[in-house]
Amino acid sequence: MREIEAKYRVGDIEALLAALKQRGLEFSDPVRQDDQAYAQPGWDYGMPKTGSVFARLRTQDGRHTFTVKRPLSNEMECVEHETPVADRDQMHAAVMEMGFRPTVRITKTRRTATTAGMTLCLDEVEHAGYFLEVEMTVDDDRDGADAQAHLDTFVQELGIHTERTTDTYDSLIRAATTG
To answer: pLDDT for 40-54, tens place per residue?
Structure first.
């Protein structure tokens, strides 16, 4: 499976909510996500992410999920594998044993909505601000850049001010807290 997304910094949350409500969309109740990001051995910030493997250990509502992503043509198009895990501490130890290293802890509050094969995530990311992720999961060979252009068109048609970013949350948080 591939996850293809486009991400936007959002300044006016109420305008976004109103634009989506006008289209008949409403976000779910908020959930808190606690993510630990990991990088493969040999990768460090400043190096390209495409082709490297990254892991994430997420806790949400007392449940833990382990995810591995490998960016393809850009950081917003990834091969993704995900599975529930019973014990976060043991999974963390296993990831460390495989040589991965923890990079950034990402805590956010997320609300979601779905429409036309897309998932919309409104995230309040600690240390980084508010973001809208629009994503699709595909199992075909469609062009990632074309899919991202489709997602971008959807966001532009909302008619609200957003700022598109190609950075992942770990990079955004790292930049906000170290520089």
So the answer is: 999 999 999 999 999
- Compute the distance between CA of residue 140 and CA of residue 159 in angstroms, rounded to an integer: 30
CB contact at 8 A, 172 and 125: yes
What pTM did the predictor assign? Answer: 0.93
Count the neighbouring beta carbons within 10 Å of the beta carbon of residue 27: 16
Instruction: List the domains of the chain with CATH numbers.
Output: 2-178 (2.40.320.10)
3-state secondary structure of 73: coil
**What is the tens place of the pLDDT at every residue in 102-155?**
999 999 999 999 999 999 999 999 999 999 999 999 988 889 999 999 999 999
Which residues fall within 8 angstroms of residue 128, CB to CB, at 6 or more apart?
169, 172, 173, 176
Contact between 41 and 97 (Cβ < 8 Å) = no
d(CA 103, CA 154): 32
